[in-house]
Write a structure and sequence with these properties.
three-stranded antiparallel sheet, receptor, 139 residues, 16% strand, 3 strands, ANXUR1/2-like, transferase, alpha+beta
Length: 139
């Protein structure tokens, strides 16, 4: 309630820890606050889906990244060396179960495919990928 009071006043920066003041991009904080406010709507039909929440939080992070880029990459907790993903085959091109692909960070916001056992993942939507991250069977 306390944070939402400041959000409604448009002064969410009042709840930021002193050690973080000046390091958060105002647009990123605004998007984060709007997302939190929507999640706390009184009625469930007014609340965003998990996919929308995820998208909004990723967008808020993207707004913040230009500030983070100036920091030392070796100390970053956002670095992922290799990330194995599992895709269910939604294209009906394959009749098996799961297939996997390994990706590694190739640069800011880009991934390269390595030793892929997936012939074509172009038909797999991001929501299908994220749904596998939520399900424990997909890991």
């Amino acid at each position: 309630e306390w944070a939402m009071k400041w959000q409604k006043k448009g002064e969410l920066e009042q709840v930021i820890d002193q050690s973080l003041k000046g390091k958060i991009v105002p647009d990123s904080l605004r998007k984060f606050g709007e997302t939190g406010e929507k999640c706390l709507a009184d009625y469930g039909v007014d609340r965003p889906s998990m996919g929308d929440v995820l998208w909004n939080l990723e967008y808020a992070l993207q707004l913040q990244e230009p500030v983070v880029d100036g920091e030392d990459d070796d100390n970053s907790t956002n670095m992922i060396g290799e990330l194995p993903l599992r895709f269910n085959d939604y294209n009906n091109n394959h009749h098996g179960g799961d297939t996997s692909v390994n990706v590694s960070v190739a640069g800011k916001g880009r991934f390269e495919e390595e030793d892929s056992s997936v012939d074509d993942v172009s038909g797999v939507s991001m929501s299908q990928v994220f749904s596998q991250l939520v399900k424990s069977e997909g890991r």
